[in-house]
Amino acid sequence: MTVQLEDVTVHFGRTCALEGFDLSVAARETVALLGPSGSGKSTALKAVAGFVRPTRGRIRLGGNDVTDLPPARRGIGVVVQQYALFPHLRVADNVAFGLRAARKPKAEVTRRVGEMLEMVGMASYGRRFPRELSGGQQQRVAIARALAIQPSVLLLDEPLAALDAQLRADMLGELQKLRREVPEIAIVYVTHDQSEALALADRIAVMRDARLVDIAPAAELYAAPPSAFTASFLGGANLLPVAMDEGGVTVAGAVIPGLKPEEGKSLLCIRPHAIRLEPPAAASAAAAGGEGVLGSEALGGAGALGGAELGGAELGSEALGGAAMGGAGARGAVEDAVEDAVRLVGRVVAAQWRGASSQVTCLVDGLAEVSVRVDVPAGRRVPEFGAGVVMVLPVEACSLVPAGVG
Amino acid sequence: MAVEALGATVVVSTPRRRDGRWLWVLPPLVLIGVLVVYPLVLVAIESIPAWGDVVGSAEFRDALVRTVQIAVSSTVGCLVVGTFLAVVISFVPFPGARVVAGLVDTMLALPSFLVALSFTFIYGTTGILRAGGFLTSPWAVVLAEVTFYTPFVMRPLLAAMSRLPRAQLDVAASLGAGPWRVLRQVVLPEVRPALVAGGGLTLLLTLNEFGIVLFLGAKGTTTLPMLVHTKGIVMFDYPGACAIAVVQIALSLGLYAVLRMALGGRRARLD
C-alpha cells in the first residue's frame, strides 16, 4: 500500500475535523474522497500531505511511518483548488521549484521542466507569469509543478472547483489523460462533485461529518449504495420508505416483485434516470393487459391527457383501482406483472429543465412526506405542474438501503 | 443619434458640475501655501548668504555623513529585526502572538524621546549597566532608533504576511522546501513591497530624527537636525541653520521621490 491512514483523528481546538479515519490507497489507484463541505475530506488530505498534524493515528507512505515528518520530507505532490502558484516566479521557475529544492543539477532541472510543461500542454508558456494565465492554464502548471518532483503519491484538493463548467469538463478529460501517462502514481482526489469522482476514481470514499461513511469501487458504490447518505449524495437517488412482510417488500402498498426483504434495510433506493413517467390513462391501459413498452411510447401522444386538469389524477387512480386487485389500487399503486416494474401514482409538484433532460419532482399518493425526482430525457413530454402521473420503477434498478446515518 | 445626444448632454453637464468641485482644491492649497510653502521659501531665501561657508565647513560634512550613516544603519537594523519578529509572529504558532502584535502597535503611539530617556536609565553613567561611553557613541543612537522604528517596518510586514495564502506555503513545503527556503524564495519576495514601504519610511524618519539624538546628548554624534538646532537656537547663526535645513529638506524630498518610484508610483502604504 502506498498510502495508509490508520485511525487518523484531527482536532482543531474543540472542533473535530476528522474522526478515526482509515484509508489505504495502492499504487496505480485513484481514490476519491467525496463529501459535502465540512465533511473532513480536505483535512484527511492535509494530514497525508503533512499540513496538519493528527491528534491520533498513524500515516504511512510506502510502509514508512511519516506521521511526524514535515511535508518537505514526504515527497508528495499536492495540487490545491486555488492553484497556489508562486506569483513572483515565471511558469518554468514554478515548475522547477521542487527540483531546485532537491538540488538537482541544472541540466536535469531544465530537461524535467520541459517534459512536464510538454505533458500538460503548456510548453510555450514557460516565460509567462502566473497572473498572465487563465484559471485552467494555472491549474495545468500547478499539476506540472506537483509531478515534476516525481512523487509516488499525488494529492488533488478540489482541483477543478474554481473553474467554470465548460473548462471543468475539459480539465476532467485532461486529468484522465494524465492518469494514463503516469499510471504508477497513487492519487487521492478530494471533491464535492460526484461526477468528478465517478469519472476519475477507481474507488470512492464517501465522507460525512468528519467520518468515513462508505468506501467501495465506484461502480459498486453507485449500483448498490450501502447507505442512505451515499445513495443520495452519489447520484441523488430517491429514497422511499418500504414495508416488509413475508410476501416481500411493498412501497406505498405496491409489492416490488422479486425484491427480497433484508434485515435493517428499510429504504428503497432508485436513481432519477431509472424512473419512467406515464400519464394515468396509459397506465390504466397497461394495467388492463396492454404492454408496458406500448404504454411508455404512448406518453408522447397522450400529452394532452398528461396536461389535463387536476381531476385527471383521481380519475386515473380510480380507474386503476378498478383494474387492479383490491387494496393495492385503493392506496394508489399497482404492480405490473408484465415487465417487472412497480407503478406508483402521484402528481407533479415541480419541474426543472436542465437541457439534456428535465428533472420532475413528484409526490406519491399514500407517501405524504417523500418526493420522487424523475429525470425525463429531452424529447419526451414533460408533464405539467399539478398533472397526475404514474411513475414506473423497473425492479432491476431498485435496491434496498438501511435508513438513518451511515 | 441617441449616442450623439448622450455625448452632448455629457459635454454640457460636466463643466457645470466640475465648476463647483474645482473650488474645493483652493482651501487645502491656500492652507499648505501659507503654513508650509511660504515658511520654507523664507528659509531658503534666508539661507542664501550662508551657503558658501556652510557647505565648505568640515562640521557640516561630518554631520551629513554621520546623519546618513546613522539613518542607513538604523534602517538596516530595523529591517533585520522587524522582518525576524514579523516572521515569528506570523508563522511560528505561539500563544500570545496577538498580544505581541498589539504591543508593537502600541509602540507606534509612544514618543521617540521616551526610548532615549529609558536608555539613559539602562546605559547611562548612573544606569543599571553603567556601560561607560556607550551612550555618547553613535551606536547608542542607532540602537535607540532601531528600538523605536522597528514597529514601522513590522506593521506593513505583518499585514502583508497575513495576506499570504496559506496554501502557497503548504505547497512550497510539500515540494521539498525547508522553512528557510520557503522564507527566502516565497515569503520574502512576496512581501517585498511591504519591506520597501516600511524600510523607506524608516529611512526617511531616521534621517530627520531629532528627539532621540538630542535626548541621548551624545557629544560626538552631531547629525544635520542637531546642527540646525545648535546653529539656529544656540548660536543664533540663523542663515547657517537655514542652509543646513535646505539640505535636509532636499535630502528628504529626494528620498521620498525615490521611494514613490520604487513603489510604482503608488503612495507608500503603511497598512
UniProtKB/TrEMBL annotation, chain A:
Coiled coil: none annotated. Residues 3-234 form the ABC transporter domain. One of its GO terms (molecular function) is ATP hydrolysis activity. Its EC number is 7.6.2.9. The keyword Hydrolase does not apply. The keyword Isomerase does not apply. InterPro entries: AAA+_ATPase, ABC_SmlMolc_Importer, ABC_transporter-like_ATP-bd, ABC_transporter-like_CS, P-loop_NTPase. Keywords: ATP-binding, Nucleotide-binding, Transport. This is ABC-type quaternary amine transporter. It comes from Kribbella pratensis.
From TrEMBL, chain B:
It is found in: Cell inner membrane; Cell membrane. The chain crosses the membrane at residues 22-48, 68-92, 99-124, 136-158, 194-218, 238-259. It comes from the Bacteria. PROSITE patterns: ABC_TM1. Its main location: membrane. GO terms for biological process: transmembrane transport. Keywords: Cell inner membrane, Cell membrane, Membrane, Transmembrane, Transmembrane helix, Transport. Residues 64-259 form the ABC transmembrane type-1 domain. One of its GO terms (cellular component) is plasma membrane. Pfam families: BPD_transp_1 (PF00528). It is a multi-pass membrane protein. The keyword Transport applies. Belongs to the binding-protein-dependent transport system permease family. PANTHER family: INNER MEMBRANE ABC TRANSPORTER PERMEASE PROTEIN YDCV. This is 2-aminoethylphosphonate transport system permease protein. It comes from Kribbella pratensis.
